[in-house]
Amino acid sequence: MHGLRLKLSQTKEYDALTDLFMKNGLEFSKEEPVRTDVVKCWKITHGEEQFLAAGLALAKRQGEFIIDGIAVEPEYRKMKIGKIILNKAIEEVKTLGGNRIFLVARAPEFFRKRGFVTVSREDAPTFFECATCEQYNATCYPEVMRLDIH
């Protein structure tokens, strides 16, 4: 990946991903137990030190696949690794027989470029906690999005 010795791998290090998500402004809490609905997690690491450059958690709630968290460290954002890790999750959903993925996007344009469309909260399962977050509609204006997989 781009000559930087980046490595994509599956991980069970949910705490490390939670740290990455919180560091990048996503609403996660270390006090919350690890969710049992996590299907798989991936990470992209850099160099000998295995610096965590990106991470994604795929979950399944109410019968629907969701991207429970995705983050890329700022210095890696123009290297297409967000696209790479998202594609890995999409391929996994296909392998598992899923036909769509939901997420809450703080950066909807990134997801729109990859085929996701904005849907109303009423058209999505009730698995997002945004409305209870103090950032909601104050400093964060997320969109509920869905990707139909063909």
From TrEMBL:
Signal sequence annotation: none
A Pfam entry, by short name: Acetyltransf_1
Residue span(s) of domain N-acetyltransferase: 4-139
Single GO molecular function: acyltransferase activity, transferring groups other than amino-acyl groups
Originating species: Clostridium aminobutyricum
Protein name in the entry: GNAT family N-acetyltransferase
Superkingdom classification of source: Bacteria
